[in-house]
Design a protein that fits this description.
The structure holds 2 protein chains of 2 kinds. Chain A is of the alpha/beta class. Chain A has helices spanning about 15-25, 40-45, 75, 100, 140-160, 175-180, 195-210, 225-235, 250-255, 260-265, 270-280; strands at about 1-5, 30-35, 50-55, 60-65, 85, 85-90, 110-115, 115-125, 125-135, 160-165, 185-190, 215-220, 240-245. In chain A, about 35% of the residues lie in helices and about 25% in strands. Classes of the chains: A alpha/beta, B alpha/beta. Chains A and B meet through helix 4, helix 6, helix 7 and helix 9 of A and helix 4, helix 6, helix 7 and helix 9 of B.
């Protein structure tokens, strides 16, 4: 089974646009949306949900006021400043349980909490594993791990040998969970100085976890000089540039209609380029 | 006053707006809390005068004292400690530095040790005090670095915070304590979808907010409809312009090159102050 994750470091460079069209060209695959805080892929692939699963990512401390003797021991020892004047702030609480452990009158209990939902759905192009973390929650990395587990299970059951993951922005916890054990990390970069800076950090992160990288330049014609800089950087670091996608307002038009660019405008340069990128992703140098 | 700039969706223009605000005000401190991918310094190129490491505390088990009772491993909610018959392992990347294991160990066999997970840098550019954090590559937890960046908040100044994308813990950590949040979005289905999520986060945090629409003119009108229905104020619109995009690509804030925007950002600040 081949697992590929599309990531970027910087947000908004076109990960989801690319993944949605890759799904069209793949024909048979399992797709995941690992951006569980702000998922968008479902808006282009219109999945119908088959299974919904509660995600209990972590616990939260709950105080029984009737038992509390107001000794402030919990308040003094909480490292997350989550307890103030005998009230626990569920937003700041990281569910570590220290307060419950040290409370002399057992007034605090750790309670499991539903932090989001994971879904398994069907799309025109194959099964999709996705999720939605409740706004402001913790542990998005753990939910990403669940999304990927679900994807592998369906892939095995349905005899599908390709999984493409749409990754979250950044290089922290949920991104690390999205790239663990994959065969290829595809970085979508835009030709801006910020984009290049963030791509370099994302490449270092892939290298740290020993994941092979591949780079795609999106909206490459917005700054040709920077595009050349990216190509030169990749060249001198032996990283393959799989393709250069031009800026095209058609991409937003397709998004507004809830369609992938590959379906909306198959003859566009963007679609043709993505098709070529798909080939290179399957057979990287 | 502390104003944070957030978005939900990545790449909508948070840094552009945060830098625009900072360049249009006096006596400003600009904090970049996107410690996974900080970009403020790309646009403002500050001269760094201070740099310090960020540590997180992780348990160290003293072998001679440990009797392998497993209490620490059972209590740890993050599975950061594994204890076998005559062996133990600590997974520092999973540790949240809560301190429970060292408090609970009956043999007093656990001490806490500092481990570096990032840096905080302080500098100056065009009269703006800049503080930004960098999470070490390969480290999963941004929280401690964000908290250390925020320790630098100088209340005598107007503080502007550039928030990471998304809607989970790093966003909450960054926005917490703000007097006002500017939500930057683009008028597209993705922008709207993620704006709605960001609005939910801010309503839970009870922070007043307004919306800046970036790349106005692309996409559709649904973001405007949503704001109207929800009674959310649209504070400013920045049109989609190849010139702004091109300036940004070179690491230049459009406020520096297109002077009329400085006035617009000043007016935006006044609106926020009144709110």
């Amino acid at each position: 089974m081949r697992q590929i994750t599309v990531l970027s470091g910087k947000g908004g460079t076109g990960k989801t646009t690319l993944v949605a069209s890759l799904a069209v060209f793949a024909g048979k695959l399992v797709i995941t949306d690992c951006d569980v805080d702000a998922p968008n892929l479902h808006m282009l692939l219109n999945p119908s949900i088959m299974r919904k699963q509660e995600f209990k990512g972590f616990k939260v401390a709950v105080l029984d006021e009737s038992r509390c003797i107001q000794c402030r021991k919990c308040e003094e020892s909480c490292r997350f400043n989550a307890i103030n004047d005998f009230k626990i702030d569920p937003i700041l609480c990281e569910g570590c349980g220290l307060c419950a452990y040290i409370c002399p009158v057992e007034a605090i209990e750790l309670k499991e909490k539903v932090c989001g939902y994971a879904y398994i759905s069907k799309t025109k192009y194959g099964f999709m594993s996705h999720a939605r973390l409740n706004p402001g929650e913790e542990n998005s990395g753990k939910l990403v791990t669940l999304v990927r587990q679900n994807a592998r299970q369906i892939a095995e059951k349905e005899n599908v040998d390709l999984i493409i993951n749409d990754g979250p922005p950044g290089i922290g916890c949920p991104v690390i969970a999205s790239v663990g054990g994959v065969d290829l990390g595809v970085i979508v970069v835009e030709p801006t100085l910020s984009g290049i800076h963030d791509m370099k950090r994302a490449l270092k992160m892939l290298n740290h976890f020993k994941v092979n990288p591949l780079v795609c330049i999106n909206m490459y014609d917005l700054n040709i000089e920077n595009t050349k800089m990216i190509e030169a950087f990749c060249g001198s670091n032996s990283i393959e540039v799989a393709g250069k996608i031009p800026f095209d307002p058609l991409v937003t038009e397709a998004m507004v209609l809830g369609k992938t660019i590959a379906e909306y405008s198959p003859e566009s340069t963007v679609s043709k380029e993505i098709k070529e990128i798909f080939g290179k992703i399957l057979n990287p140098h | 006053m502390i104003i944070s700039v957030a978005s939900g969706k990545g790449g909508t223009g948070k840094t552009t707006v945060a830098v625009g605000l900072a360049l249009s005000a006096e006596n400003v401190q600009l904090l970049d809390c996107d410690v996974e991918e900080p970009n403020v310094h790309i646009l403002l190129k500050p001269k760094i005068h201070h740099e310090r490491p960020v540590y997180s505390l992780v348990p160290q088990i003293i072998e001679e004292r440990c009797n392998y009772c497993r209490k620490c491993a059972e209590l740890c909610q993050y599975h950061a400690i594994f204890v076998a018959k005559k062996n133990f392992l600590v997974f520092p990347e999973l540790c949240h530095s809560c301190g429970l294991c060292s408090v609970a160990c009956p043999e007093k066999a656990i001490i806490e040790k500092e481990r570096q997970i990032g840096v905080v840098k302080k500098g100056l550019a065009q009269g703006i005090d800049i503080v930004y954090g960098e999470l070490n590559v390969g480290e999963p937890m941004a929280g401690p670095v964000i908290r250390d960046v925020k320790k630098e908040i100088d209340r005598r100044k107007l503080v502007i915070i550039d928030v990471p994308p998304g809607a989970s813990c790093p966003v909450v950590e960054s926005v917490h304590g703000s007097d006002f949040t500017v939500l930057v979005t683009e008028p597209t289905p993705f922008g709207l979808h993620d704006l709605k999520i960001a609005v939910e986060v801010l309503r839970t945090l009870n922070v007043p907010f307004g919306v800046v629409i970036n790349r106005a003119g692309i996409g559709d009108k649904k973001v405007y409809q949503f704001c109207e229905e929800e009674g959310i104020r649209i504070l400013l619109e920045i049109p989609f312009s190849r010139k702004i995009a091109e300036l940004y690509s070179r690491g230049v804030s459009f406020v520096t090159e297109m002077k009329e925007w400085k006035t617009k950002f000043q007016r935006l600040l006044e609106t926020i102050m009144e709110a």
